[in-house]
Amino acid sequence: MLLAERCESERLRQIIKELQRHRFGRRAETLPEDQMLLGLEDVEQVAAYGETALDISAPEGREVRVRTRRGNRGALPTHLPRIEVVVDIEGKTCPCCQGELHRIGEDRSERLDLVPAQFRILVTRRPKYACRACEDGVMQAPAPARLIEGGLPTEATVAQVLVSKYADHLPLYRQAQIYARQGIELDRSTLADWVGQAAFHLRPLHERLLGKLRRRPKLFADETTMPVLDPGRGRTKTGQLWAYAADDQPWGGADPPGVAYVYAPDRKADRPIAHLAGFKGILQVDGYAGYGKLAERGDVQLAFCWSHMRRNFYELAAPGPAPIAGEALKHIAEFYAIEKDIRGRSAEERCLVRQQKSRPLAEAFEQWLRAKLALISQKGKLADAIRYALSRWEGLTRFIDDGHIELDNNAVERSIRPITLNRKNALFAGSDGGAEHWAIIASLVETCKLSDVDPLAYLTDALTRIVNGHPNSDIDQLLPWAYYRHELKAVA
């Protein structure tokens, strides 16, 4: 009886520690990169402030500091236009002998200048012609196609609104405020109308992107909550934004990376089954049980995420001393050390190294987990963490015999992060339809970023070509990675 009470007391303490960390501690296991950069910005600002004060108070060392600054600043891009300003002497007569000075060279320096974003108005004129002899009719060139018929914006303007909202996380009302400072009064509802019409035209591209990803032999999958306004109840409801990503770069694959988001009003297991209809291969996921139904059909094998498994032990070790959880983290770290060494190698090389090095570690770790599970209370959080790992052991160790599989699901979690940033700023989607638009445009924007394509240039070009009748049979040429290859050919 006393032993049972102690076990229950320990379990409750663990729950309290977990709740305290969830409420007051950091959610991430490591300091987020963006947050770390914010701290470094302040440090660098203080250093620059001190250097400026030193330049003024101790001018004798200024030249040395200037040379150091020049050596660290890098080179300016060659594609930017150069506006030359000549700073010349007033008179070209020698002050000594009054002879004419001749030019022997020059000093040249370059600085980065900025012209603020500026609106302009494109005026389209279509002359009309008639024949004086027959007066049979009036000839005039047809009006160019527009994305917003009868509206104000060009395709580039709409693309800027999309990129600001879905890449730079600026809600439409903030964009309206920014435009108002330049004297352009655009109501938020007007901007929303532009986004909706753009989403309609871009929907076939989203469907094609998802279809192309479904043909890959290996995908990552994850999901995140999407608050959606529910006017009938006067509050928000919780939808789900599912993410399906492909990234073959860790093993040198030729296929370009990409991600497609799909909105669903719930988290039922039927959702990924519908989204991935026709997919055959490896699906790397977290521990959500709903993916199991997808694997039951036989065409899909699940590879589970070591990062999620690790998190269970980390949450036990983070609040204070936890010998077993801490030792589990050391075991897991050995696998990540091997992966770091083989990143970028071919799938065959990765598989060979894993069979030689990771397999013995996996066998030892499994035996260690089973031995520890037999020694501890079965009702505690530690037992739950161990059972989580052992119940998914086949999927967790599938990476050993397949060099295409990653150790974790971080590739798709990185694609989820921009969605969470946008969600913090926008708070919620206005409707299920708005959440679907979010999925459509964010898929194209994030795939651009994965392929090193400028999303503004891409969306401007894609929208322009769509409204000008780009054939649906050639839709693959409008996908972000095709645009990237097209740009490379143009440069060459």
Describe the protein's architecture and organization:
This protein is of the alpha/beta class. 52% of the residues lie in helices and 10% in strands. It has 17 helices and 7 strands. The strands form 2 sheets. It has a 5-stranded mixed β-sheet with strand order 5-4-3-6-7. A two-stranded antiparallel ribbon has the order 1-2. Strand 6, helix 8 and strand 7 form a beta-alpha-beta unit. It is extended, with a radius of gyration of 30 Å. The chain starts with a helix and ends with a helix. The model is unreliable at 488-492 (pLDDT under 50).
Brief rundown of the structure:
It comes from Bradyrhizobium septentrionale. This is IS66 family transposase. Helix content is 52%, strand content 10%.
Overall, the morphology is extended
Please tally the β strands and state the result: 7
What is the strand content?
5-15%
- Proportion of residues in helical segments: 40-55%
**End-to-end C-alpha gap:** 79 Å
* H/E topology pattern: HHHEEHHHEEEHEHEHHHHHHHHH
Protein name: IS66 family transposase
Organism: Bradyrhizobium septentrionale
InterPro entries: IS66_C (IPR039552), Transposase-related (IPR052344), Transposase_IS66_central (IPR004291), Transposase_TnpC_homeodom (IPR024463), Znf_dom_IS66 (IPR024474)
Overview features:
492 residues; five-stranded mixed sheet; 17 helices; 7 strands; 10% strand; extended
Map the helices and strands.
Elements: H1 2-24, H2 33-57, H3 62-72, E1 128-130, E2 138-140, H4 155-166, H5 172-180, H6 188-214, E3 218-230, E4 235-246, E5 258-264, H7 270-275, E6 281-285, H8 291-296, E7 300-304, H9 306-317, H10 323-342, H11 347-375, H12 381-391, H13 393-396, H14 410-426, H15 432-450, H16 455-467, H17 480-491
Parallel strand pairs: 3-6, 6-7
Antiparallel strand pairs: 1-2, 3-4, 4-5
Helix pairs in contact: 4-6, 4-16, 5-6, 6-15, 9-10, 9-12, 10-11, 11-12
